[in-house]
Amino acid sequence: MLSRLAPVARAAPSVAKRAFSVSATRAYNTEYRTSEKTQSLHNFSDEEIMLRDTVRKYAEEVIAPKVYEMDESEVMDKDVIQGLFDNGLMGIEIPEEYSGAGMSFTGAILAVEEISRVDPSVAVLVDVHNTLVNTVVRHHGSDAIKEKWLPGLATDTVGSFCLTEPAAGSDAFGLLTTAKEDGDHYILNGTKMWISNSGEAGTFLVFANVDPSKGYKGITCFAVSKDMGVEIAKKEQKLGIRASSTCVLNFDNIRVPKENIVGEVGKGYKIAIEILNEGRIGIAAQMIGLAQGAFEKALPYTYQRKQFGKAVGDFQGMGFQFADIATQIEAAKLMTYNAARLKEEGRVFTKEAAMAKYFASVVAQRAAGAAIEWCGGVGFTRDTGIEKFWRDSKIGAIYEGTSNIQLETIAKFLKKQYA
């Protein structure tokens, strides 16, 4: 069982009850601090800690030696992907009955964070697969859908979430892909773009409109396998996360059985809204891991590099910068963990997810940019891998809702609260 966070507020004690003796107060505080009611945001279950440590070891020993080559070739190493499946990292929340690990959402967030410390490209593959694709199937799929698709997603088949189109970016419901009913099937036609994991995926969750006259209320989610005829078209050449495939997909008269509908006909927009809110926490996790990775790569060098008779990192001006960035990273972590726990508790978390995603992306760019400057000319070269963190950081302000979209979401909640 996952530990739960303490209530935000407690009833205020009366004046008489506040008149504790010093010893009684200490005893009360000790008991209260160690009870299940009081837990820090760094309080993880034994399973979550074990997962985090396992992922960290895998990332450092297996992924790290391949990061440079994958970035240069812009191709995800197949052995890395297989290793993710072998270590149970592609089915973290999938129940054991479907060959998954049956762990918590926070466990998935920790895994994304740890992988991002080494390579955000690999992290986004894990993130999209777990927090978007797997979650949609788990939460909205029928028993038959779960039995058909989840075992593969947990053990050997990469999943891709297909929502964005040329005319549907921030306005996600302006999509033009259609699904026309034809007996026991739907005929899929349209184009998707900016689709993560698409180069490696075997399973695609495709959002299409079954009745354009109804607008967004015609949007429906379909589970589609690559062998049905999905065309992987242009692969984008990107500034960062280059090993993560981002492609244009074409659907040309693809016949999809009605049994492949995930959720209800015309309810795809609700699925999309729900899952994008959750997915933003995953992107926040990617960004805090990235920031931590850049920080950890840069600092040792500053204490080895000497100028004017002492280590660069020993100058007060540098130390203050280290402290400032470390504080921002910690704040972003706590916001991300808090949003994850709120989601697990079934509480409203949309504002907190938007805040975490927005702030973590800002901190990631600051931390990665500062890390380059701390290392000077060495940081600017590709050999160290520090500059890669900066290139990878920029996407955090763009996908899963741009920073402006996050700010708009936060502002709407503030208006409800204060207007």
UniProtKB/TrEMBL annotation:
SUPFAM superfamilies: Acyl-CoA dehydrogenase C-terminal domain-like, Acyl-CoA dehydrogenase NM domain-like. It is an enzyme of class 1 (oxidoreductase). Gene3D superfamilies: Acyl-CoA dehydrogenase/oxidase, N-terminal domain, Butyryl-CoA Dehydrogenase, subunit A, domain 2, Butyryl-CoA Dehydrogenase, subunit A, domain 3. Residues 266-414 form the Acyl-CoA dehydrogenase/oxidase C-terminal domain. Pathway: Amino-acid degradation; L-isoleucine degradation; Lipid metabolism; mitochondrial fatty acid beta-oxidation. Its EC number is 1.3.8.5. One of its GO terms (biological process) is carboxylic acid catabolic process. Residues 45-155 form the Acyl-CoA dehydrogenase/oxidase N-terminal domain. GO terms for cellular component: mitochondrial matrix. Residues 160-253 form the Acyl-CoA oxidase/dehydrogenase middle domain. Its cofactor is FAD. It catalyses: 2-methylpropanoyl-CoA + oxidized [electron-transfer flavoprotein] + H(+) = 2-methylpropenoyl-CoA + reduced [electron-transfer flavoprotein]; valproyl-CoA + oxidized [electron-transfer flavoprotein] + H(+) = (2E)-2-propylpent-2-enoyl-CoA + reduced [electron-transfer flavoprotein]; butanoyl-CoA + oxidized [electron-transfer flavoprotein] + H(+) = (2E)-butenoyl-CoA + reduced [electron-transfer flavoprotein]; (2S)-2-methylbutanoyl-CoA + oxidized [electron-transfer flavoprotein] + H(+) = (2E)-2-methylbut-2-enoyl-CoA + reduced [electron-transfer flavoprotein]. One of its GO terms (molecular function) is flavin adenine dinucleotide binding. Keywords: Acetylation, FAD, Fatty acid metabolism, Flavoprotein, Lipid metabolism, Mitochondrion, Oxidoreductase, Phosphoprotein, Transit peptide. Homotetramer. Belongs to the acyl-CoA dehydrogenase family. This is Short/branched chain specific acyl-CoA dehydrogenase, mitochondrial. It comes from Cutaneotrichosporon oleaginosum.
